[in-house]
Amino acid sequence: MKQHFKQLLRKSCLLALFLTTVGMQGLYAQQAVTGNVTDGDGVPVPGANILVKGSTNGTQSDFDGNYTIEASSEDILVISYIGYATKNIIVGDQTSINVQLTEDASQLEEVVVIGYGTTKKKDVTGAVSRVTAESFENQPLTRVDEALQGRAAGVTVAKANGAPGGGIKVRIRGVNSITGNNDPLVVIDGVLGGDLSTLNPNDIASMDVLKDASATAIYGVRGSNGVILVTTKKGSGKGKINVDFFTSISQVSGLLPTLAENVGDFARIENIRKLSIGQNPTFTDAEIAGFDTNGGTNYQDEVLRTGFSKNLQISASGSEGKIRYFLSGNYRDEEGIVINTGYQQLSLRSNIDAQITDRFKVGLNIFGSRGEKKNNFESFGNGQGSIMYKANTWDPTTPIYDSNGLYNRRSSRGIGSLNLNPVLTLNETDASDVDERISTALNATYKFNDNFSYSMVAGAQINNLNVQRFAVEGSDDIPDANYRNNKNTIYQLSNIFSWQKLFNDKHNIKLTGVQEYSNTKIQTNTYNADNLLLADGFYFGETASGFSISNDFDERELSSFMLRGEYVLDDNLSITATARYDGSSVFRPGKKWGLFPSIAAGYNIINSSEGSGFINNLKLRAGWGQVGNQGINTYGTFANLDNNGYAYSGGAQSPGLFILNFANEDLTWETTTQTNVGIDLGFNEGRGNFSIDGFKKLTSDLLLNVPVSGTNGGGTINRNVGEVENLGIDIALGYDIIQNDNLNWNANFAVSYVKNEVTQLFDGLQQIDGLYQAPGGQARVVNIIQLGEPLGQLNGATFLGTWKSSEASAAAAVGKKPGDAKYLRDENGEIAFGAIGNGTPTLTWGFNNTINYKNWDINFFLNGSHGFDIYNIMRAGITGGAGDSRSFMSADQINQWTPTNETDTPATVQLFNSSRYIEKGDFVRLSNLTIGYTFTDIAGTTGTTLKLYGGGQNLFLITDYSGYDPELSSRRSDQGNADVAPGIDVGAYPNPRTYTLGIKVGF
Question: Is this entry keyworded Membrane (predicted)?
Fold first, then answer.
């Protein structure tokens, strides 16, 4: 019995083992699982990863989102894709599994780039403004800096002129330096020293502007004027191709009123002017009658035209497996509204990212551009006024061509402007500025574990600027040829270490350490060929009778170490502390290194993740920090010599050297200290947001180029002297005014107020003369720097009207007579010169609106600037009577002083720089109005769109300024820092009104 039981037990166990084995075999039997992966809109997602959890068995979805994988019923499929939340699905008895991925919730919370990393917007402690592509994608932009204008509080963007490819000045929270550069640092995809003007607006995903020192201190000496962090687009998802083409027509908004429109009046007033200075009349009565009947030549109208432009942007983006790509190209061809001027640019970009493993990813960004300016206004110089200045002051009684069809080179009667015929100058000058750039950025990131990672950014930039010029306006009207090549090479290597860990679900600590090195080399070669014997263009320069050659080399290095600590407590309290240690080669040993610290904190009184009611987010911020500035020439601490001759005994000159600049071995950093307090507010369930920041920025130990008295040898010396203070408020307000299925209206308003003041100069001085001289040979400086006043003080005499007949005795006492211009005089009877205005705006704002109704979209953008003056020197030239513009061209002269009509319009020579030509510069502009309609699923193809749009830019301008545009200014490069001479108009290239038609195709 016992033996029988044992046999039965053995058989039962064998049977159980057999059944279990069979069951297990059935349980783990592999089967083919198929399916499709789509996004939230049902669009197929190619390249999604499908992996059997805990194994190496995996595949990817194809172009249509389909996949096939071998798996058992107990397996778990892990489906993931960049930018989407990962899904885990048990196979079970399913043989077909379709998956719809949703956006990663963690990515829905806005992330802000803060330099060498990112952070959630709610954890930001510094003053940072963000501009995303969505805010300007419906505006046909040709330049990225135009996208910043009026959209980021605390950022002032102003056009230098309206020329195609012309410069645009960007300033963040006012200006700091008197003689140094005030441009912000531009960082493009981690590479320092970029140029906004060369970028394709279609390439930009976002721009984050670091404004206060607690935000900019991570860039040390490079961040003294603020930082603009540009992030270009990356590809993801199914491959997409976008084409955007628009064409524009540009015109001047209106001609300036001059006597060229009434040439008979011009001739009569010219005769009166000649008689007043004891000369014979220029025109006979018969000639004047002919001008009344036939008119003359309006050279302003002759040099202006309608400009036609075209712009093509193409991009391809997407991902294939673990590789993401974004490729783009941009071609723009712009005709200027001034004859024979224009701009062409071609740019290409390639952004490639590869997730090599779960821990290692690498990316390579390459950008190249070539821009060519044709007859750049600056190439003509403006010592005697710009081309527009000369066109508005040229003799309207002399036609463009003589009876033989040749140019009338000068006024046939020696009146009006004494310069060369402006139509001849423009048509016969061939000036070409070619700017060629290539920039590469290699970035790699390796995650050692979930807490610790290392990133490397290796960047290289090469910029070649070639300027070649053939001009007819040489000595004795014999053409000259000039050539200059600037080669600028920049290398950068950044090593970034990041560690982050969350303790007890409350304490979030992140440390970022950076070691960085950059090297900049500038090589310049220049030659000038004077008086070409063969006037057939630039390439005959070797036929010149005289040559001059100059070469220059400049190299500087910057080595840096940075440590940043970020602490977040329970998603409410945020603290950021930064220290950067910079060493610059421009300073002497013992002065090379500077430490720049900052600290900032933010506290969420109402947290966005917890807030309820109308106000769902309320945050307070405060920060303090210091940044440096190394803004001197590479050899600015050394003495500079020049050679010249000197007649020691009064006879022939002997060659010798003299000092231009004295050495200063103690020269060191210019330092800007800034304090910032701010409030961020979110309301109405996230539909609205509001932020306000107040700041104080003090720049001390200014790097100032100080004159040395003649008794000490003359020349100049760089010193650390002087202070400039900026106090201001930045306000930003955004709100979704309408938000429903068919109609959405989003509005954003940004306003900035800055009060600038020079709080200290040097050696007890109350005033420093600027370098900007009015044209016309009067050699008077029109800008000054004054203690206790803002930068941008305008210098001149105070105009009091005219001397009247009743004041004949008083006028005679100062050598004047009734009808002459009357000016304020000092106790010695001399004309009193001083500050008569200021060209620095105190208030700037922008109001951007995007409206979507079904397939329609509308964008309109208004901006304005207030609290500044314009020195209308071109109006002074048009008024005339002095210098190189001796005739009266102003329509006001019709009502000039006479014994029977004693007006305040002088009938004789007057000063160019006086308060008569100071005007308020305040303006409001409709910068953009664009209306578009989008067709979807074209030709039955899902995802294919076609958009038609049209609109205009600079459609209207509300201002009291009598010139072309109050935003524009003009100056020569040798006339000092533009920020101490703003608002001076000596004939800037007019800002055109533009009408645009375009088409966008996406598939």
Answer: yes
Taking the C-alpha atoms of residue 62 and residue 998, their distance in angstroms, rounded to an integer, is 35
How many other CB atoms sit within 10 Å of the CB of residue 771?
Answer: 16
Give pLDDT, residue 41: 63
The percentage of the chain sitting over the pLDDT mark of 70, rounded to a whole number, equals 90
Query: How far, CA to CA in Å, does 914 sit from each of 390, 801, 837, 870, 893?
Result: 20, 11, 10, 12, 17
Class of domain 26-106: mainly beta
Q: Would you tell me which CATH number, out of the four given (1.10.1760.20, 3.40.50.720, 2.40.440.10, 2.170.130.10), belongs to the domain 108-236?
A: 2.170.130.10
Per DSSP, the residues of 923-949 read EEEEEEEEEEEEEESGGG-TT-EEEEE
Amino acid at the residue 165: G
* pLDDT value of position 716: 81
Residue 643 β-bridge partners: 657
Pairing of strands 31-38, 66-71: antiparallel
**The three-state (H, E, C) secondary structure of 900-922, written as one string:** CECCCCCCCCCCCCEHHHEEECC
Whether the Cβ atoms of residue 185 and residue 226 lie closer than 8 Å to each other: yes
* Predicted confidence band of residue 642 (pLDDT cuts 50, 70, 90): low
Please compute, for residue 212, the number of CA atoms within 13 A of its CA located in the half-sphere on the CB side: 30
- Predicted confidence at residue 9, as pLDDT, reads 42
Burial of 1001 from C-beta contacts in 10 A (0-12 / 13-18 / 19+): middle
How many other CB atoms are found less than 10 A from the CB of residue 403?
A: 7
Strand partners, 258: 890
Would you call 552 exposed, middle or buried from its count of C-beta atoms within 10 A (0-12, 13-18, 19+)? exposed
Exposure class string for 797-831: b at 16+ Cβ within 10 A, else e: bbbeebbbeeeeeebeeeebebbbbbbeeeeeeeb
How much helix, strand and coil, in percent to the nearest 5, is found in the chain? Answer: 15, 50, 35
For the cut 50, the answer to whether the pLDDT of residue 663 exceeds it is yes
Q: What pTM value is reported for the model?
A: 0.86
DSSP string computed for 509-534: EEEEEEEEEEEEEEEEEEEEEEEESS
Contact 1000, 857 (CB under 8 A): no
Per-residue b/e over 853-874, b at no fewer than 16 CB within 10 Å? Answer: eeeebbbbbbbbbebbbbbbbb
Q: Is the pLDDT of residue 649 over 60?
A: no
Number of helical H runs and strand E runs in the chain: 11, 51
Contact predicate 219/212, CB 8 Å: no
**Every domain of the chain and the residues it spans:** 26-106, 108-236
Q: DSSP for 713-740, please give it.
A: T-SEEEEE--EEEEEEEEEEEEEEEEES
